[in-house]
Design goal:
Blueprint lengths: L1 E7 L2 E8 L7 E5 L15 H10 L3 E6 L12 H19 L3 E6 L1 H9 L6 E7 L10 H13 L10 H10 L2 H4 L7 E7 L8 H9 L4 E6 L10 H14 L7
Parallel strand pairs: 3-4, 3-5, 5-6, 6-7, 7-8
Antiparallel strand pairs: 1-2, 2-4
Helix pairs in contact: 2-3
């Protein structure tokens, strides 16, 4: 199932959904900020992860946040938070299932803030999640997004760059991660993450409240979606905390 979900009068986001008969949970996948790098020939993006979840008995939803790909609007952190809220509300009505949010990098930061606000969210996976955005200023923001913007994978209104950076500074995941409890939380991080140091994962874990787990993946880089071991650890955690009908 694919649709464009209207979030605001001038913003619609692309949603892809995989419905599984007898599913007991729906997993919402939240991507990170596009780098602009070309995918490998065998990399099918989040569809591949969603299909893996569906094969294991979970319904799944993949968001394309505003400003990315076919979705309209421009990137902003608060805008992505509103996108996740709207998609979670839609998924709750469409599937009539409790939700687990699985976010990567910037998408994980969005998940950390939004998950505590949604009553139907029962768990969260934060993969390669920053604890804060203190290292980002206007110039580093422009540098980090320029490649994706020039290749038209990401739409950025650079006239609002300072406002966007201020949004990031005012919404550190450290501020929200303790509020995820009593929902179940898994923090995943690559030991060799070249973008977000592994110390961020430890800081998030210290601030989080039970039930919580931390998995550091040896030798794994930032893009944990492409790490077989990271995905394996996440699926193991899902099987334990949110078993499907076939695993009961």
């Amino acid at each position: 199932m694919q649709l464009m979900l209207s979030v605001e009068p001038e913003v619609a986001v692309r949603v892809r959904a995989w419905r599984v008969e007898d599913a007991r949970w729906c997993i919402i996948l939240c991507h990170g900020l596009p780098s602009g790098e070309e995918r490998g020939e065998r990399d099918r993006g989040y569809a591949e992860l969603a299909e893996l979840l569906a094969d294991r008995g979970y319904s799944a939803v993949a968001i394309t946040f505003r400003g990315v790909g076919e979705s309209s609007g421009f990137f902003s952190f608060e805008g992505w938070c509103r996108d996740l809220q709207a998609v979670a509300e839609w998924a709750s009505l469409e599937f009539q299932l409790p939700l687990v949010v699985w976010g990567f990098s910037m998408g994980a930061a969005v998940a950390a803030k939004v998950s505590p606000e949604l009553s139907n969210v029962k768990g969260a996976i934060l993969a390669a999640c920053p604890a804060h955005f203190n290292w980002i200023d206007v110039e580093t923001f422009k540098a980090a997004t320029s490649r994706a913007a020039s290749s038209q994978v990401l739409k950025v209104d650079y006239s609002r760059a300072r406002e966007v950076v201020e949004e990031l500074h005012s919404s550190p995941p450290l501020k929200y991660v303790s509020r995820i409890s009593p929902r179940s939380l898994l923090i995943l991080h690559g030991q060799c993450d070249q973008l977000i140091p592994v110390s961020h994962a430890h800081a998030l874990y210290r601030s989080a409240k039970p039930p919580k787990e931390l998995k550091i993946i040896p030798c794994a880089p930032h893009k944990l979606r492409l790490s077989h071991q990271a995905v394996h650890e996440a699926l193991k955690w899902l099987d334990k905390r949110f078993p499907t009908a076939s695993s009961l």
